[in-house]
């Protein structure tokens, strides 16, 4: 259990906030995107989205580039290498915590009834 | 494991990982949402089918002159770029202003497309040159030179010398491990210190075998049905040069196109149920067209596997119409934002 708590405590607080987690997960899956894409995919309003993006930019996780598509202004957003690395660490921490839970649950299940096709080797 | 109430829904990390995964996969749900890939592919197939009619309609002097014969290949050249250029154009003009722009790592890039084309061309030239050299020198080099094929041999040898290294060079750039869609789950972490029992392994082997068997059975079944329909349509056939070689080509074309259509629309078909009807058309229309419309009489450059140009045109038309309907539905469901995003 200590391992699980440590894994959760180690989660990056900048990313581990529902709104920012949505944004970073979306940015991690694409090379770059614009503000409208994030607005539609996250369901956040413009103010919230801007505020979260500012926090990510302050942390050095996101890069915001103001540009034009023809004559229309466009805000391009992408994760910085530091942001990608932070997200990767966050993802791994979550996976580690889940794996620990999973092993505990399987061990409990084994104790309760005869072993299934998966067994735990410790 | 599924009957254990603790797994996995009540584990907070499991929920968070599931949310993360769902969020990371959101961009993939846009695949063919606007019908762009369908329109691109449909245009390519249509051009492939119509190019034979186009060549038939061209004056003979155009194809006869070495300076203007390239005009005959114009639709084929456009056909190569349509699957790339049309979705991109639709994205720029229609999709991105409505639902936002995103660029994915696994998208086909123009550079890679051009490299792939030259790779295919280099392989084709190398194989043809090699076959030519082998056929000319079957009885030795001296008899071939005596026959006056020396120049031809040197020319083919030169082509082989250039195209083979080019194919190897381009192949190293083109044939790379495909980048997977990013995932929240990390199997090596999740399953470390867990191992399978022999029963579990044999269970998974059986599952894999069953799935493979299912796909083979589905392919054989659909192929058999299509072949049966072709056999039934034989009595309706207006042209006389019907053979089983051509029927086999038709079955391969129809079944592969239907599967491709399902793959293109794996996401969109859940939203647009009428696509099932389009799929039925995709299966039936080519067979009926093959039976009723003979096509141009010249030797078409697109007569692959003995497929008639009208059949390709019919398939292309179904793709194109399906793509156009999807695009119209997309435009209606996604109006332009009233005020531009900052």
Describe this structure in words.
Chain A is α+β, with helices and mostly antiparallel strands. Chain A has five helices and four strands, in the order ααβααββαβ. Chain A has helices spanning 2-9, 18-29, 35-42, 46-58, 81-112; strands spanning 32-34, 62-69, 72-79, 118-120. Chain B is built from 13 helices and two strands; from the N terminus they run ααααβααααβααααα. Chain B is globular. Chain B has 342 residues and is mainly α. Mean pLDDT of chain B is 82; it is low at 1-5 and 299-305. Chain B has helices at 12-24, 36-57, 60-64, 74-99, 110-136, 141-146, 150-174, 187-190, 198-233, 244-264, 268-271, 275-292, 309-333; strands at residues 102-103, 194-196. The chains are: A alpha+beta (122), B mainly alpha (342). Chains A and B meet through α2, β1, α3, β3 and α5 of A and α1, α4, β1, β2 and α9 of B.
């Amino acid at each position: 259990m200590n391992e699980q708590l440590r894994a959760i405590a180690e989660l990056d607080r900048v990313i581990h906030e529902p709104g920012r987690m949505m944004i970073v997960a979306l940015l991690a899956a694409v090379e770059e995107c614009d503000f409208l894409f994030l607005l539609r995919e996250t369901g956040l309003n413009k103010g919230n989205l801007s505020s979260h993006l500012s926090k990510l930019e302050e942390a050095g996780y996101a890069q915001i580039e103001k540009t034009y598509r023809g004559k229309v202004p466009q805000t391009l957003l992408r994760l910085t290498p530091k942001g990608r690395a932070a997200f990767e660490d966050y993802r791994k921490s979550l996976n580690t915590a889940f794996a620990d839970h999973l092993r505990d649950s399987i061990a409990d299940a084994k104790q309760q009834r005869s072993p299934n096709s998966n067994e735990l080797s410790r | 494991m599924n009957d254990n109430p603790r797994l996995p829904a009540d584990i907070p990390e499991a929920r968070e990982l599931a949310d993360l995964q769902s969020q990371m996969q959101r961009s993939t749900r846009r695949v063919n949402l606007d019908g762009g890939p369908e329109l691109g592919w449909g245009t390519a197939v249509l051009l492939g089918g119509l190019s034979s009619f186009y060549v038939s309609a061209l004056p003979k002097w155009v194809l006869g002159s070495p300076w203007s014969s390239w005009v005959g290949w114009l639709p084929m050249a456009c056909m190569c770029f349509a699957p790339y250029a049309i979705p991109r154009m639709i994205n720029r003009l229609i999709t991105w202003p409505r639902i936002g722009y995103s660029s994915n790592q696994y998208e086909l890039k123009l550079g890679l497309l051009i490299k792939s084309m030259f790779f295919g061309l280099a392989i084709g030239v190398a194989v043809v040159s090699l076959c030519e050299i082998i056929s000319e020198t079957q009885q030795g080099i001296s008899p071939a030179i005596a026959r006056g094929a020396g120049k031809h041999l040197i020319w083919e040898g030169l082509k082989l010398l250039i195209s083979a290294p080019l194919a190897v060079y381009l192949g190293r750039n083109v044939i790379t491990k495909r980048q997977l869609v990013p995932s929240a789950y990390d199997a090596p972490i999740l399953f470390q210190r867990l191992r399978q029992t022999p029963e579990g392994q044999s269970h998974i082997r059986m599952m894999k075998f069953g799935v493979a068997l299912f796909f083979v059975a589905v392919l054989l079944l659909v192929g058999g049905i299509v072949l049966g329909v072709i056999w039934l349509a034989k009595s309706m056939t207006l042209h006389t040069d019907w053979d089983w070689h051509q029927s086999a080509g038709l079955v391969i074309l129809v079944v592969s196109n239907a599967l491709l259509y399902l793959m293109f629309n794996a996401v969109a078909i859940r939203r647009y149920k009428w696509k099932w009807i389009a799929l039925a058309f995709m299966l039936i229309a080519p067979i009926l067209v093959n039976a009723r419309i003979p096509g141009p009489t010249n030797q078409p450059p697109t007569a692959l596997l003995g497929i008639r140009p009208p059949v390709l045109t019919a398939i292309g038309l179904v793709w194109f119409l399906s793509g156009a309907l999807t695009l119209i539905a997309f435009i209606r469901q996604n109006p332009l934002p009233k005020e531009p995003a900052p």
